[in-house]
Amino acid sequence: MFHLAKGLYASWNRKEQYSVLILGLDNAGKTTFLETLKKESALSSRPLDKIAPTVGQNVATLPLASHPGVLLKVWDVGGQEALRAMWSEYYAQCHGIVFVVDSTDRARMDECRETLTSVVTDDEAEGVPILMLANKQDRPDRMEIEDIKEIFNQIAAHLGARDSRVLPVSSLTGEGVLDAIEWLVVRLERNKANRPPQYK
Ligand SMILES: Nc1nc2c(ncn2[C@@H]2O[C@H](COP(=O)(O)OP(=O)(O)OP(=O)(O)O)[C@@H](O)[C@H]2O)c(=O)[nH]1
Ligand SMILES: [Mg+2]
């Protein structure tokens, strides 16, 4: 009887775990985004002014106050050019991709577009929801969100029927970060039949 009750309790409390991959050029703000997300989720996090360029990977498993039955396992990998070849190793296992863009880095928008195109056209990432974050919106020298959306829309042709969106955020101030995650979680759940979560 005890074992039955324990088993039922465990299955009632099972959580759906989705893996989210954070990509983007070096200096885009990926690690800052992850650390802010950890702080918002009441996990211990690094001071934002102590973050160095990522060489390996950072990973955190986050509970979501707005979705008690969901855990997000978030993978942040280095964006330096030499490290981008590693990204595809993660595609097959991920449920969603967040592509972070430095909204002030006009000089690298072409590189950013080409990099995102190579991500969304990779067969291993087929069908996963893609959220593009126009980061560093707190900076006065940022590009307008509409201009960034236009760049993204040129890539949308490759996306087929999958969910995608461009949202403005500041990983540094936290503005827009939880709204962005909320958008993503709804799409991860919607895409569950194609990419089932792990049950924890
Ligand atoms: N003003 C402002 N600065 C930001 C924001 N997000 C990140 N930064 C700064 O941008 C720089 C790079 O941030 P990281 O989070 O290390 O960037 P990354 O994408 O992880 O870089 P790699 O690990 O090299 O791929 C740091 O100086 C951050 O403080 C933001 O929203 N606003
Ligand atoms: Mg980093």
TrEMBL record:
GO molecular function: GTP binding; GTPase activity; metal ion binding
A GO-annotated cellular component: Golgi apparatus
Positions with a binding annotation for Mg(2+): 31, 54
InterPro entries, sorted: P-loop_NTPase (IPR027417), Small_GTP-bd (IPR005225), Small_GTPase_ARF (IPR024156), Small_GTPase_ARF/SAR (IPR006689)
Keywords: GTP-binding, Magnesium, Metal-binding, Nucleotide-binding
Protein name from the UniProt record: Arf family GTPase
Coiled-coil blocks: none
NCBIfam families for the chain: small_GTP
GO biological process, one term: protein localization to Golgi apparatus
Top-rank taxon: Eukaryota
Positions that bind GTP: 24-31, 79, 135-138
Organism encoding this protein: Maudiozyma humilis (Sour dough yeast)
